[in-house]
């Protein structure tokens, strides 16, 4: 979990520094954001302390892999020279649009899932490498990618979007240009943190279910 927050915070800082003059979308992590990304993993860790079993172990790693994959996709994708495409329609959208995907962002998501899959399993198993270890690594990696895809789909289909009455910008925020925005689409209470929580939960459940066959 420390690895996720450390590396993801570094990437977020680099991306926000680069875009500081272009947007105000980046801000330090809040308690709500920390819970959205790490709440599932924290619950799995507590459960593992009470009832140590493989499913909870992989639930923990799968949720973190999904959160890492999503964060790396977003932050690394911000460095792309090309505008992203909406995952549902493949139409070109603004870089800040929820549900937008890019080649470099997808590569970043794969790298994040790989890192959590490899490091997480090796930390749990130590120096021993077995059939279980190799299968568990694949499970965590695919859990991370699955959660990332669910995040993009949720952002495109479910996340609330608003229109600024001043500049006409489509935004995720209820306030823009120092004034209220108008709800345009999505479920009103589904914001970015809800989508991130769904991402982490999806990755964790994917790994937990897959672990039942180990």
Helix tally?
A: 6
Number of strands: 6
Shape: elongated
Q: Provide the succession of SSEs.
A: HHHEEHHEEEEH
- Assess the beta-strand content as a share of residues: 5-15%
Structural class: alpha+beta
Give a quick rundown of the structure.
This protein is an alpha+beta fold and about 210 residues long. The protein has helices spanning about 1-20, 30-50, 55-75, 105-125, 130-155, 190-210; strands at about 85, 100, 160-165, 170, 175, 180-185.
Secondary structure layout plus pairing:
Layout: H1 2-18, H2 31-50, H3 54-77, E1 85-86, E2 100-101, H4 103-125, H5 131-157, E3 161-164, E4 170-171, E5 175-176, E6 179-185, H6 192-211
Antiparallel strand pairs: 1-2, 3-4, 3-6, 5-6
What descriptive keywords fit this protein?
alpha+beta; 4-stranded antiparallel beta sheet; 6 helices; two-stranded antiparallel ribbon; 214 residues
Description:
This protein has 214 residues and is α+β, with helices and mostly antiparallel strands. The chain has one domain (32-159, 189-211). It contains six helices and six strands. It has helices at 2-18, 31-50, 54-77, 103-125, 131-157, 192-211; strands at 85-86, 100-101, 161-164, 170-171, 175-176, 179-185. Strands 4-3-6-5 form a four-stranded antiparallel β-sheet, with no helix packed on it. It has a two-stranded antiparallel ribbon with strand order 1-2. A hairpin with a 2-residue loop joins strand 5 and strand 6 (179-185). Helix 2 runs parallel beside helix 6. The longest helix has 27 residues, at 131-157.
